[in-house]
Design brief:
Layout lengths: L1 H33 L7 E7 L2 E8 L1 E3 L4 E2 L6 E2 L4 H14 L25 H5 L12 H5 L7 H8 L16 H15 L3 H13 L5 E2 L13 E2 L15 E2 L14 E3 L1 H12 L6 H7 L18 E5 L2 E10 L2 E8 L4 E7 L7 H11 L20 E5 L4 E7 L2 E5 L5 E6 L4 E4 L5 E6 L5 E5 L4 E8 L1
Antiparallel strand pairs: 1-2, 1-13, 3-4, 5-9, 6-9, 7-8, 10-11, 11-12, 12-13, 14-15, 14-21, 15-16, 16-17, 17-18, 18-19, 19-20, 20-21
Helix pairs in contact: 1-10, 2-6
């Protein structure tokens, strides 16, 4: 029996080693191209069947001090934090301290719901109808201001309820900030105290923290951005600027966590193996919820429900000023990929998705998307349901998409009226109506324009 067990272990070790060697060169090529030695960097981890087959760092953790990135580097993970908020709510639900169908006014007194019954479930699934404060000009103009929790809620509680709960999916940072407030009200602890005691410490996530500018955190990396008027294809490290410092009293349950690739792998295994919540609660987190009209939202509780080259995935990306992140989990294949970066001008979603496809032996085919055919009716400013907007412009026969406060992102043509972002699987699909006004759909599940074109 001992000899058989030893043989099995050796076969497993050889298998994992071969797996890693087969893909290492491909992963290195993808990551080193986007994150060269002298520029802003990234840390990446790939695991298959619970075994890490790849873990490397590229580029610099700090450009000014010329510090290399490390696999132990600590990043702001942005909206991946929503997973921790959602699981915290599920922990409290299992403890009998709240119910998912409780109205939010039970815990946040006098929050204006405008006659609607808005529940915790609606906040978790982004179906509350409450707009995202990050889409409002008032928040943008006050993004550096320090607020107490009550003051910050008062800032955005004046925002209208855009839809009846359950009517539409609308990604809302407001909803997850409110969930953080509910966690505090129910547990009688601060958000980060609850996360520390119920998640970080039990899982030994020793390099995960709540964002704090004054605290000394070993291996914390610096974040970088680009000048707002810079076109994406012109990016180079000589034009990189330090990322703006957001006031982190605005983050809490919506996006306030720092972490590493190793800690996020511990998090992935804990969720898979039901160490924090039951299988029943995990199913709730991973359910693709439906709207009142029966359409799927492609979102659960803190995880987006998606697919990678036809294979079901549970994932989330994140971003703060100076940082971008993405984690992907393929539950049926037990493949986990996380890429954390310290720059805003190159989302890791595209790379991590390609890496996940390679790891399960279903790589994407390369597509030549240099051709472009523009109908002038596409050009203009599109206003989205959440109050945000995109400017679509044409320069030198090149199509660009731009948020009012962001840089221009190059678009490449796919099918007739579908255009893809550079190094991204995200796309914009234009729909021309008979009156020659056009609307645009972004990722189908996140934004849909009101069909109003402003020149």
């Amino acid at each position: 029996m001992k000899n058989n067990s030893l043989t099995l272990i050796l076969v497993l070790i050889i298998s994992i080693s071969g797996y890693s060697q087969n893909f290492e060169q491909e992963f290195d090529l993808l990551l080193s191209k986007d994150y060269p030695t002298s520029g802003t960097g990234a840390s990446a981890l790939v695991a298959v069947n619970g075994n890490v087959i790849y873990k490397k760092a590229f580029g610099k953790a700090d450009l000014e001090l010329d510090v290399d990135m490390s696999v132990n580097s600590v990043f702001e993970i942005g909206s991946i934090s929503k997973q921790f908020t959602a699981v915290s709510i599920l922990i409290l639900a299992e403890q009998g301290k709240l119910k998912l169908d409780d109205e939010i006014t039970k815990y946040i007194k006098n929050y204006p719901t405008h006659g609607h019954k808005i529940t915790i479930h609606h906040l978790l699934s982004h179906t509350s109808g409450i707009g995202s404060f990050t889409a409002s000009d008032e928040w943008w103009n006050n993004r550096k201001k320090d607020y107490t929790k009550e003051e910050f809620i008062n800032l955005f509680k004046k925002l209208p309820v855009l839809y009846a709960p359950g009517e539409k999916y609308l990604y809302s940072n407001t909803g997850y900030f409110l969930l953080g407030a509910i966690i505090e009200e129910v547990s009688n602890k601060t958000y980060i105290e609850f996360i520390n005691e119920n998640i970080f410490k039990p899982l030994r996530m020793k390099n995960s923290f709540y964002i704090n500018r004054s605290k000394i955190i070993a291996n914390r990396v610096s974040g970088y951005d680009n000048p707002k008027d810079l076109i994406d294809e012109d990016f180079n490290e000589n034009k990189t600027v330090n990322g703006e410092r957001l006031n982190y009293s605005h983050c809490d349950g919506a996006g306030g966590i720092l972490s590493t690739v190793d800690d996020l792998f511990l998090w992935n295994r804990a969720i898979r193996n039901n160490k924090l919540i039951s299988e029943e609660s995990k199913i709730k987190a991973f359910t693709n919820y439906q709207l009142l009209n029966g359409k799927n939202t492609n979102y659960g509780y803190g995880w987006a429900i998606d697919q990678v080259n036809g294979i079901s995935s549970i994932e989330h990306n994140g971003g703060t000023f100076g940082f971008r992140s993405n984690s992907i989990y393929l539950p049926n294949e037990d493949v986990f990929v996380v890429v954390l970066t310290n720059r805003t001008f190159s989302d890791p979603d595209y790379l991590s998705t390609k890496i996940a496809a390679i790891a399960m032996n279903r790589p994407f085919k390369e597509v030549d998307n240099n051709n472009i055919n523009i109908d002038p009716v596409f050009l203009g400013t599109y206003e989205f349901d959440d109050g945000s907007s995109r400017i679509i412009s044409l320069e030198d026969n090149k199509l660009y998409s731009q948020r009012p406060n962001g840089g221009k992102l190059r678009l490449f043509q796919g099918e007739k009226n579908t255009f893809y972002f550079k190094n991204s699987f995200s796309n914009l699909t234009f729909d021309i109506t008979p009156n020659k006004h056009s609307s645009v759909i972004y990722k189908n599940r996140i934004y849909k324009s009101k069909g109003r074109k402003v020149k």
